[in-house]
Amino acid sequence: MIKKLPSSPKIGMVSLGCPKALVDSERILTKLRSEGYDLSSQYDDADVVLVNTCGFIDSAKEESLDAIGEAIAENGRVIVTGCLGHESDRIRERFPDILAITGPQQYEEVVSAVHDAAPIEASPYLDLVPEQGLKLTPRHYSYLKISEGCNHRCSFCIIPSLRGDLVSRRADAILREAEKLVAAGTKELLVIGQDSSAYGVDLRHQEYRWKDRMVRADLTDLARGLGELGAWVRLHYVYPYPHVDQLIPLMADGLILPYLDIPFQHASPSVLKQMKRPANEVKILDRIAKWREMVPDIALRSSFVVGFPGETEQDFQYLLDWMDEAQLDRVGAFRFEAVAGAAANAFEGAVPEEVKEERYQRLMEKAAHISAAKLQAKIGRDIPTIIDRTDGEGGASGRSYADAPEIDGEVHLRDAENLQIGDIVTVRVEDADEHDLFGVAIS
Ligand code: SF4
User: Fold this and answer.
1) Which atom of ligand 1 is nearest to the CA of 158?
2) Cβ atoms within 10 A of the Cβ of 293, count?
3) If pLDDT is split at 50, 70 and 90, which confidence band does 3 have?
4) Of ligand 1's atoms, which has the minimum distance to the CA of residue 276?
5) Of the residues 148, 154, 276, which should be mutated to test ligand 1's pocket, given the most ligand atoms within 8 Å of the CB?
6) How many angstroms does the Cα of residue 268 sit away from the middle of ligand 1?
7) Shared domain check, 210 and 65
8) Contacts from 362-369 at CB under 8 Å and sequence distance 24+?
9) Which of 284, 263, 282, 260 has its CA nearest to residue 273?
């Protein structure tokens, strides 16, 4: 039987403005062409028309609005981008039927709007990569990057100088990517960004259309949308800004995993001040207590730096006492290292290596002690677990809702002949050690 290959959607482009805008148009078309879109020079032949506008002076704005009007009249399916995109209210007021409006250099946003307006039909005969993209993680879990860069300037970190300030992705683009991953077999979405709780700040929490509703570029809205896709949703690198409290009801409702990875890095106020840590406030222990009232099983993971310049024994003891109170489920720690280019390298009060090592050991001992007690308390309980591997001899290993891949503990199962990688099962916990659980699947 002869297979008919799907035909590609056609894109029309009206490019106005300066040479920079022209280069933007070229980049957008190059990207769309590389994805398989065709180009059209006729309004009536295009599936969607892009108008790249100029907003330099009033006459240029009028010319852009006229071009939008012409494209609407001739074709009707129009996406606006470029400098006039900053005045989206003005454009919408005049042309309420516009499909999407983006600003200058928002390539991903324009391309994403085209995907929505004129999707390319997937074809196993034509596509070199699967629809969800190529993955280095196993099929059943995927990292989902929601932003790049960071607006903070922690004194030990050089990420902002390497990657720049926070740039968030559009909420609809993230949700679309997540939906594709879930359709391709992902059972667990691991949400990452340098500072996930700041997601959307740079976009002023703009709203994007997703299916039949609007979704704000904001971590709570995004987490809700991701939770509705039916996979586990695990949040990483969440700094405890006040709005993080809004995520807890989503956990109580089972939309996202009751798991928060919060890189506290220290607890002593003077060390945190020197570190210039964001969202560092004294009331965090009260907030943790409130989160636990709402979601008693919430798992909290964090990482800490010991031996930061100027850290005294008193500061370190403060951290240990804080850990006794916070009772974090999972803890990672690092001995402070001077990273080339970090401001902290010039700070006085370098901590000798042997003192760093001794503090590191004490911290890890404390963390292991807390972890062991918490895991012991899980013996006899039934815990949702995702299967990561099977050993071919009746055993399997996976992770509970409280364990992220690579960094947290594992759940080891006996009598697991029927389990497959990616299954999510309920495990009755029979035993525990400092980091791992042992049990059997009961459903
Ligand atoms: S440690 Fe995190 S929050 Fe601080 S500057 Fe680096 S990326 Fe930003």
Assistant:
1) 6
2) 10
3) low
4) 4
5) 154
6) 18
7) no
8) 362/316, 362/320, 363/304, 363/306, 363/319, 363/320, 363/323, 363/331, 363/333, 364/331, 364/333, 366/320, 366/323, 366/324, 367/323, 367/328, 367/331, 367/333, 368/434, 368/435
9) 282
In a domain, 134, yes or no: no
pLDDT, the chain, mean: 91
Same domain? For 145 and 184 the reply is yes
Q: What token pair was written down for 187?
A: 């059972």
Torsion sign across C-alpha atoms 395, 396, 400, 403: positive
Annotated binding site for [4Fe-4S] cluster: 18, 54, 83, 150, 154, 157
pTM: 0.79
CATH of the domain at 398: 2.40.50.140
Instruction: State the distance from the centre of ligand 1 to the C-alpha of 278, rounded, in angstroms.
Output: 8
Binding-site residue ranges: 18, 54, 83, 150, 154, 157
Would 214 be classed as within a structural domain? yes
Does 66 share its domain with 103?
A: yes
3-state secondary structure at position 331: strand
Question: What is the enclosing helix (H) or strand (E) of 293?
Answer: helix 284-294
Please tell me the predicted confidence (pLDDT) of residue 420: 95
Mean pLDDT of 27-33: 88
Compute the average pLDDT of residues 370-380.
97
Substitution site in 159, 168, 241 for ligand 1 pocket (most atoms within 8 Å of beta carbon): 159
Total domains, the chain = 3
Top-confidence range, 37-41, 56-60, 187-191, 339-343:
187-191
Residues 284 and 397 in one domain: no
Q: Ligand 1: residues within 6 Å at CB? A: 150, 152-154, 157, 159-160, 194-195, 278
CATH number at residue 69: 3.40.50.12160
Provide the CA 373 distance to its chain's centre, in angstroms.
Answer: 31
- How many angstroms separate the alpha carbon of residue 354 from the centre of ligand 1? 27
In the reported structure, the alpha carbon of residue 390 is separated from the centroid of ligand 1 by a whole-number distance in angstroms of: 37
Answer yes or no: is pLDDT of 318 > 80. Answer: yes
pLDDT at 164: 87
Last residue of some domain: 323, 342, 376? 376
Give the residue whose CA is nearest to atom 7 of ligand 1: 194
Write down the pLDDT at residue 108.
77
Amino acid 124 reads P
CATH number at residue 278: 3.80.30.20
In a domain, 297, yes or no: yes
Q: Give the position, in ligand 1's atom list, of the atom nearest the Cα of 156.
A: 1
Asked if residue 411 and residue 266 are part of one domain, the reply reads no
431 CA to centre of ligand 1 in angstroms: 38
> By residue range, what is the domain housing residue 26?
10-117
* Tens of pLDDT, residues 383-433: 999 999 999 999 999 999 999 999 999 999 999 999 999 999 999 999 999
Shared domain check, 324 and 215: yes
Q: Over the stretch 326-365, which tens digit does the pLDDT of each residue have?
A: 999 999 999 999 888 899 999 999 999 999 999 999 999 9
